[in-house]
């Protein structure tokens, strides 16, 4: 259905500018389904909680800075983050973002934002599932396809996504990027290719988990610079790059020889990440509660 007027070209490039979004949603339990959204600084801005974005096409999002295809903003937030924060009374988050096609963005596809002021924000658990995200970081640096900064995700799940086509230059720019004090996110069963770095956890508090992801990257698989980054877990992942930052206490059972049906070095014809019949990864995974046992 028609989405109303074209969005403005924002003069205010701060992260919470509602007028920069083609669609702005607040309140609770709203749905955006089967829509095509394009040519805006931000595609969808979500305030409130428990919204659904499903089966949409969101493309050509030109805003840099913290604008994104889907911008998840804090609404009546709980100030502060930490492993002991209780998300039961948090009034933001809880969203489901699934089965969307997102393409061609200046920075990232999904940005989960803290309340301004640097205290951090705790969100209710969200689910980001089965999305196809291609061509990000077209005009900016130091971002990612799915990006969080100073956020407690309360177990937010990022899973079963295809992420490919990173166009940044010198900076970190991982496909899945938790930055500065983030904690409590779980990434699993994502397929990531044509990127500099698959997963990056920069100076985070910890409690971040990466399981059963397939990463075909130009530089690295999982980067964990800075601290404290405690209680992180990295297990059952396949990559063409070594897991240099994954120490024994952080993870195990990661492999650098997947044995795929296709050859990811030949992207025109080789993007088939199914395991070949003789792959050493078959039946080699360890059981991860809530990930591999369901």
What order do the helices and strands come in, and which of them pair?
Elements (H helix, E strand, L loop, with lengths): L20 E5 L5 E3 L2 E5 L1 E5 L5 E3 L2 E5 L6 E5 L5 E2 L16 E3 L2 E5 L2 E5 L8 E2 L4 E3 L2 E5 L9 E4 L1 E9 L2 E5 L9 E4 L3 E6 L2 E12 L3 E6 L2 E10 L9 E3 L2 E2 L11 E2 L42
Parallel strand pairs: 1-4, 2-5, 3-6, 4-7, 5-9, 6-10, 7-11, 9-13, 10-14, 11-15, 12-16, 13-16, 14-17, 15-18, 16-19, 17-20, 18-20, 19-21, 20-22, 21-23, 22-24, 23-25
Antiparallel strand pairs: 8-12
Helix content range of the residues, please? under 10%
End-to-end separation in angstroms reads 37 Å
Let me know the average pLDDT: 86
Q: How many strand units?
A: 25
- The number of helical segments is 0
Could you state the oligomeric state of the chains shown? single chain
| SS strand fraction | 35-45%
Q: Kindly provide the radius of gyration, computed on alpha-carbon positions and rounded to a whole number of angstroms.
A: 18 Å
Largest sheet: 14 strands, parallel
Shape: globular
Low-confidence stretches: 1-5
Return the string of H and E elements: EEEEEEEEEEEEEEEEEEEEEEEEE
Secondary-structure-based class equals mainly beta
């Amino acid at each position: 259905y028609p989405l109303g007027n074209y969005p403005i070209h924002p003069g205010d490039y701060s992260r919470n500018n509602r007028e920069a979004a083609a669609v702005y949603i607040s309140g609770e339990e709203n749905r955006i389904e089967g829509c095509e959204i394009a040519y805006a600084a931000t595609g969808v801005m979500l305030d409130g909680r428990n919204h659904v974005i499903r089966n949409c096409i969101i493309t050509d999002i030109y805003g840099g800075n913290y604008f994104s295809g889907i911008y998840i903003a804090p609404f009546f937030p709980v100030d502060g983050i930490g492993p002991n924060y209780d998300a039961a009374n948090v009034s933001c988050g809880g969203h489901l973002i699934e089965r969307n096609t997102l393409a061609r963005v200046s920075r990232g596809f999904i940005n989960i934002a803290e309340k301004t002021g640097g205290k951090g924000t705790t969100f209710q658990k969200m689910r980001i599932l089965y999305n196809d995200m291609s061509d990000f970081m077209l005009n900016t640096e130091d971002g990612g396809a799915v990006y969080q900064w100073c956020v407690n995700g309360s177990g937010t799940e990022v899973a079963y996504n295809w992420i490919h086509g990173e166009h940044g230059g010198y900076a970190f720019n991982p496909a899945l990027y938790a930055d500065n004090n983030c904690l409590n996110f779980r990434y699993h069963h994502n397929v990531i290719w044509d990127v500099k770095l698959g997963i990056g956890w920069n100076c985070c508090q910890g409690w971040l988990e990466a399981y059963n992801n397939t990463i075909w990257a130009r530089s690295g698989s999982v980067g964990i610079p800075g601290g404290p980054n405690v209680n992180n877990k990295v297990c059952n992942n396949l990559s063409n790059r070594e897991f240099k930052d994954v120490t024994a206490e952080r993870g195990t059972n990661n492999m650098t020889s997947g044995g795929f049906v296709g050859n990811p070095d030949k992207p025109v014809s080789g993007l088939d990440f199914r395991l070949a019949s003789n792959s050493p990864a078959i039946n080699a995974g360890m059981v991860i509660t809530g990930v591999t046992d369901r």
